[in-house]
């Protein structure tokens, strides 16, 4: 399919890209029907939509419109993948710059109460061109190293925009400016919750997985219990932990001194850990089961002790599968950690729930956008690591 | 010397190995032949304790093989299996160095041994040392598998269907190599196969197993001439018997004084191949040459006499 689509127009007829048709519809809707930005007199009143042509100075508006339409055209037609990639990246950069310019353009001089936020048209355009870029990237099948480099470039662009102050007139950064101290504190808590629970789950889940392959009788019961834990809704699990954690804090000496309490970060960490355990344990079991039987037999037959065989043969060969489990857990926990705010556990969810309480969508975004960016970045980094850890020839040996 | 003494292995209600006793003298090759499920692999695995017998004992040079911890015993016994079982995440050199590494040899000694073994198996050390197993052909992987089994200079080598995955031409070459290595180091080899042809070609002694029982354990000529049971006879293949007998003898052993016309046969050729050559070229006799010099002749009649059932 990739080949067929990438070949240019054939036989005099203009060939259309299947995904491109959908993208072009999205682009048209985003550019012409939906508002590019929303203007509000203050942070909690209902917004007034501003179309793309209203949201920017005329010259910039027409330039962006031309770029977006051209980008939509590139998406619609069959063209080389690299052209599509360049077009999507170009339009995405232009959109990111333009949305900041719209903030400056729409904010009346000296007015600190007015709020300008990206409109649904902007989000739809961003989504359409991000999809186009993702499609082009996946068809290029870049090596893991190049994908990591691409991520670094994207992070650098984002960082440069933030440092330059281009977005300072956007509502989300105004919310940030009002609570930058709290933002970094909660972001730190968020990362700590997500990575801390992952570290605990890896440190205990891998040994549990190993134990299950050594004692097959335990496998069914243990995996079933972990499966049931996964099905408990996250809010319910956070709630369920309040009582036992409070009991531990009250009755175990020293427990409250190290921060254990019925609400707060401790039950949040425990809940995230409970969710993390199944992917880590089951991937460890699957990874170890996947080690070729002959390889294990040869290792034993040559006189490796159980421990040597595990460390030198089985774990290295199972590593990519275990790492895949860790990837699932990390991306899942970055999202789930948002819920921790409900029981006073902190994290970026604090802004989400505050924002919902105050009907201040910008504040919700201040919590949600960094969470999404973090999760996507974690997914890209770990996917690359998984691919780098896979060894050629190992899979064939399973046959 | 390996003494298998009344070894029985029971899994649940199934007796996989049933009171088998046999002795493999030092420096000889014993081949265990049988169909799948005959217990041949299980029997071999009791030698390095990959299987612990339900009853009976295995003694190596007179010492019970349970005297040492199993992993120490196994480090002294070479082990090569079908499909080679190479570690896919390690280089050729690291694979070969496995047991020396476990035994704590120093790096220099290991490196020397790796190169020596690669040379022995006609693989250029500089070219192969750093390769990964998946970059090798099936025959090369198999050779590395045997080289790895021999790395720590074991006196005993166990081989489980080592050539099962190879095509006939590469298999013949691998068998030739094994015979040469065995002759050179005097290793005691126990090899498991389902292929009687291979057993006759490699074995000083052949053990035929069926349904967990050892039916016959004798020299190839005896197995062919006097099969102990109908099953052994069937395994040899009755129509094949004369040719199997011929394959045990070399032309050099049958050469007689005299002259013959046509291209000479090499003295190292098996009598079976010589017989085929005479039939094919329509000759009654052919000269026998050793190192290019004619040392005598073989006759069709003389070869045919060799193929007859021994009295």
From TrEMBL, chain A:
SUPFAM superfamilies: MetI-like (SSF161098)
Pfam families per record: BPD_transp_1
InterPro entries tied to this protein: ABC_transp_perm/SBD (IPR051204), MetI-like (IPR000515), MetI-like_sf (IPR035906)
Subcellular location: Cell membrane
A GO CC term attached to the entry: plasma membrane
Topological type in the membrane: Multi-pass membrane protein
GO biological processes: glycine betaine transport; transmembrane transport
Highest taxon, organism lineage: Bacteria
Keyword Repeat carried by entry: no
ABC transmembrane type-1 domain boundaries: 187-382
Chief location bin: membrane
Record's keyword terms, sorted: Membrane, Transmembrane, Transmembrane helix, Transport
Transmembrane residue ranges: 21-41, 61-78, 85-102, 122-141, 148-167, 187-213, 225-249, 255-275, 334-357, 363-386
Family: Belongs to the binding-protein-dependent transport system permease family.
Name of the protein: ABC transporter permease
TrEMBL record, chain B:
One Pfam family, short name: ABC_tran
Superkingdom of the organism of origin: Bacteria
Gene Ontology BP term (one): quaternary ammonium group transport
Keywords for the protein's UniProt record, in alphabetical order: ATP-binding, Nucleotide-binding, Transport
ABC transporter domain sequence ranges: 2-236
GO molecular function: ATP binding; ATP hydrolysis activity
Signal peptide per UniProt: none
Protein family: Belongs to the ABC transporter superfamily.
Name of this chain's protein: ATP-binding protein
Species per Swiss-Prot/TrEMBL record: Salinarimonas ramus
């Amino acid at each position: 399919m990739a080949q067929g689509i990438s070949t240019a127009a054939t036989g005099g007829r203009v060939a259309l890209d299947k995904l491109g048709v959908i993208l072009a519809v999205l682009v048209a809707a985003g550019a012409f029907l939906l508002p590019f930005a929303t203007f509000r007199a203050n942070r909690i009143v209902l917004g007034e939509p501003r179309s793309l042509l209203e949201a920017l100075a005329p010259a910039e508006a027409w330039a962006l419109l031309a770029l977006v339409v051209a980008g939509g055209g590139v998406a619609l037609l069959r063209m080389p993948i690299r052209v599509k990639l360049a077009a999507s990246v170009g339009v995405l950069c232009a959109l990111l710059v333009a949305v900041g310019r719209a903030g400056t353009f729409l904010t009346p001089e000296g007015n600190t109460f007015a709020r300008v936020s990206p409109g649904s048209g902007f989000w739809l355009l961003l989504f359409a061109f991000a999809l186009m870029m993702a499609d082009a990237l996946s068809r290029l099948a870049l090596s893991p190293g190049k994908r990591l480099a691409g991520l670094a470039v994207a992070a650098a662009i984002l960082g440069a925009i933030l440092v330059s102050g281009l977005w300072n007139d956007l509502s989300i950064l105004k919310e940030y400016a009002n609570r930058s101290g709290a933002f970094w504190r909660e972001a730190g808590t968020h990362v700590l919750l997500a990575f801390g629970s992952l570290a605990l789950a890896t440190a205990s889940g891998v040994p549990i997985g190993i134990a299950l392959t050594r004692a097959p009788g335990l496998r069914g019961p243990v995996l079933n219990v972990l499966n049931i834990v996964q099905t408990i809704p996250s809010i319910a699990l956070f709630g369920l932990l309040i009582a036992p954690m409070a009991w531990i804090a009250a009755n175990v000496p020293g427990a409250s001194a190290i921060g254990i309490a019925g609400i707060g970060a401790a039950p949040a960490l425990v809940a995230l850990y409970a969710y993390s355990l199944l992917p880590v344990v089951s991937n460890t079991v699957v990874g170890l089961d996947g080690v070729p039987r002959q390889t294990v037999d040869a290792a034993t037959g040559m006189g490796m002790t159980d421990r040597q065989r595990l460390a030198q043969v089985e774990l290295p060969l199972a590593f990519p599968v275990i790492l895949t489990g860790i990837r699932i857990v990390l991306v899942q926990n970055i999202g789930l950690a948002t819920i921790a705010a409900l029981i006073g556990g902190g994290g970026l969810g604090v802004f989400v729930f505050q924002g919902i309480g105050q009907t201040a969508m910008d504040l919700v975004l201040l919590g949600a956008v960094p969470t999404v960016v973090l999760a996507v970045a974690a997914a890209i980094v770990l996917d690359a690591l998984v691919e780098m850890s896979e060894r050629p020839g190992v899979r064939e040996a399973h046959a | 010397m390996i003494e298998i003494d009344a070894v029985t292995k029971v899994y649940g209600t199934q007796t996989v190995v049933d009171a088998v006793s046999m002795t493999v003298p030092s420096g000889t090759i014993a081949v265990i032949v049988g169909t799948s499920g005959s217990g041949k692999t299980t029997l071999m695995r009791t030698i390095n304790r990959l299987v612990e017998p339900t009853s009976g004992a295995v003694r190596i040079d007179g010492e019970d093989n349970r005297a040492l911890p199993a992993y120490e015993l196994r480090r002294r016994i070479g082990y090569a299996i079908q499909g080679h079982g190479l570690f896919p995440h390690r280089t050729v050199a690291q694979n070969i160095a496995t047991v020396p590494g476990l035994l704590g040899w120093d790096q220099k000694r290991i490196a020397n041994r790796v190169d020596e073994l690669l040379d022995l198996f006609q693989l250029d050390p500089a070219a192969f040392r750093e390769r990964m197993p998946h970059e090798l052909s099936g025959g090369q992987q198999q050779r590395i598998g045997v080289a790895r089994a021999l790395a720590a200079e074991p006196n005993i080598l166990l081989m489980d269907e080592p050539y099962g995955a190879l095509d006939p031409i590469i298999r013949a070459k691998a068998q030739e190599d094994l015979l040469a290595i065995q002759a050179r180091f005097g290793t005691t080899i126990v090899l498991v196969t389902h292929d009687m042809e291979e057993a006759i070609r490699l074995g000083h002694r052949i053990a035929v197993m069926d349904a967990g029982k050892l039916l016959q354990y004798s020299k190839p000529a005896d197995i062919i001439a006097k099969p102990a049971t109908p099953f052994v006879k069937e395994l040899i293949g009755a129509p094949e018997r004369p040719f199997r007998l011929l394959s045990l003898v070399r032309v050099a052993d049958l050469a007689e004084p005299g002259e013959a016309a046509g291209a000479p046969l090499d003295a190292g050729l098996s009598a079976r191949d010589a017989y085929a050559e005479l039939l094919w070229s329509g000759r009654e006799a052919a000269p026998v040459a050793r190192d290019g010099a004619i040392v005598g002749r073989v006759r069709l009649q003389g070869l045919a006499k060799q193929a007859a059932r021994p009295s």
